[in-house]
Amino acid sequence: MNDGRKVKLSIEEKAKQAPNLPGVYIFYGPNGEYLYIGKAKNLRKRLKSYFSNSSKTNRKMQQLLQEAIDLDFTIVENEREALLLEANLIYTYKPKYNVMLKDSQHYPYIEITNDLFPTIRITRNKIANSEYFGPYTDANFVRDLVDFLQQVYKFRTCEKDLSKPIRKPCMDYYLHRCEAPCVGNITHQEYFEKCILPTKNFLKGDILSTLELIKRKMKIHADMLDFENAAKYRDLLFKFEKVMQKQQVVVEPWRNLDVIGQCKNVFVVFRVRGGYLVGKLSYEMEGDLKDFLFNYYIVNRNEIPPAVVSKKAVNVENLVVSRKPMDEVESGLLKKAMINAQESLQHIQTNLEYLRKMQEILNLSKIPIRIEGIDVSHLHGELTVASVVVFVEGNAQKDEYRHYRFDTQSMDDLAVIRQLVLRRYSKHSLPDLIFVDGGQEQVKTVKEALKSIGKDCDVVGLAKKEEIIHTINGPVRLPLDNPVLRILVKIRDEAHRFANSFHAKLRLKKLQQTVFDQIKGIGSKRKEKLLAHFGSVQKIKEASVEEIAKVIKNKKLAEEILKKLKGESS
After folding, report:
1. Which among 102, 107, 134 is positioned nearest to 283, based on CA atoms?
2. Residues sharing a CB contact under 8 Å with residue 220, sequence separation 6 or more, in sequence order
3. Of 139, 76, 153, 77, which Cα lies nearest the Cα of 107?
4. CB contact at 8 A, 283 and 269
């Protein structure tokens, strides 16, 4: 009997009704979340295969079908269109059951925003509208590289909303590091051609053009007997050499390529740009080389260089094509990439073994795949901050690090730890293990704070002097060279470094905001002149009275500035 109500079809019935056409299909979870996204030349044939007898032995597929409560599909013109739609959806929604790249660490990128006057910055998270170059291996290298390029091409790195009127430029303009589009000093077209386009070309591998530009400008100023500006360009060349000296020169400067080595489920990518090895990247992924190329280049939208070299030639719908080495140089690079893949696999397996030992030795409830470490930093109760660092499978996940500020002088370290736990884990899910810098009292405080919000997980601490591990059940002593202890020491030191570096930034900011304001005769213009000339408060402090007086044209005031600065830091 039909009562007129619409009957909801099961996912198996929906699969049977799919058309015999190419398209993309989506399995949804109970909360509407994307569980799996796939593509097919024939939607009905592919979807019906999920419910066949042969699929019942596939554990992953059965888990998906048990969790999925809905199914939908989109018809497209051809398989290539399906591949691109699939990649876009996977990139956007990151479904639970899709084969995904797993970074050994979250690598930094150089981002060029899609604004009228683009800003260039370093990020570890990509969004749809910007253009990205990378990934890179070394964050310090990327910071130095962006700093060098800004001095050459004077692009903006700020986050200012240029749609709003701005009266005067920031310090970068006075330091000759920005063309100041914020105050209308340059048109959109001029900014793009002068600042953005040559930066993009450099990041794509055309390094020689930038070096030739610097050398040409240095010669012009030298011929004009303008030795001060000639020296600035000479110093830029020195800076470039210093930035790149960590990177190995591997091929001729006109070659730009990626070299991919594989060992089981580990892939290593050598990114060679302009003859320099600018990235050595390691990933874990279930699947073959074609799956990796699809995920790395199409799903993750990484830059595709003129050549991709691998052990065998692979074609991903002509969107990404890899080839075998063409000469001895490329063969040598591929061999090194494969050796690095073997070493990465060994490192991953070793880390997992150490984490299993940690579970056994410390009597933890589960293998601590994800560990979050917390630490507190302050100066006599002032500017109290706490840090949270995240390690997954023994590797730092720096994009997930967080700082917390506490605007009170009445809280001791235990009270700060308690408040940190409440603030963080009231909103965030628990890790497998919380590590706290301290002993039994600190561990107890974390456990009690978790209990007050109805949560619980394993907690350990590490006392600094004797490196004794503290658990809720008591202390554990291990030899100093024990790998379990070394992992915890690494997390403790990283949490301590992260908290202290943030605290130092706050102290410096407070000093910069207040020290000049306490000196009669120092207004905003003189403050700008001093910072523009010396670059920082620390550099002013290191200068002589004569050097400061030369900038502000007042020797007595220069003496007062130095006296105040040295008094603040004593």
Report:
1. 102
2. none
3. 139
4. yes
What is the spatial distance between Cα 47 and Cα 14, in angstroms, rounded to a whole number? 9
Instruction: Please give the DSSP secondary-structure letter assigned to residue 400.
Output: G
State the residue for tokens 């109970």. Answer: 30
Main-chain dihedrals φ then ψ at residue 73, nearest 5 degrees:
-150, 160
| Residues with Cβ within 8 Å of residue 495, at least 6 apart in sequence | 373, 374, 375, 387, 388, 389, 435, 437
The residue among 84, 70, 79 whose CA lies nearest residue 35 is: 70
Confidence of residue 378 (pLDDT cuts 50, 70, 90): low
The token pair that represents 38 in the structure block: 């796939």
Rounded to whole angstroms, the Cα distance separating 437 from 372 reads 11
| Sheet of 109-112, strand order | 120-123, 109-112, 131-133
3-state secondary structure of 191: helix
Q: pLDDT tens digits for 475-531?
A: 999 999 999 999 999 999 998 888 877 656 665 565 555 566 667 777 767 777 777
Q: What are phi and psi of 380, to 5 degrees?
A: 50, 40
The size of the chain, in residues, is 570
Which residues are paired to 376 by β-bridges?
A: 386
Cis peptide before 135 (omega within 30 of 0): yes
State the burial class of residue 166 (Cβ atoms within 10 Å of its Cβ: 0-12, 13-18, 19+): middle
Q: DSSP per residue over 231-250, as a string? A: HHHHHHHHHHHHHHTTSPB-
244 close to 276: Cβ distance less than 8 angstroms: yes
Which residues, at least 6 apart from 266, have a Cβ–Cβ distance to it below 8 Å?
282, 283, 284, 341, 342, 344, 345, 348
What is the end-to-end Cα distance of the chain in Å, rounded? 89
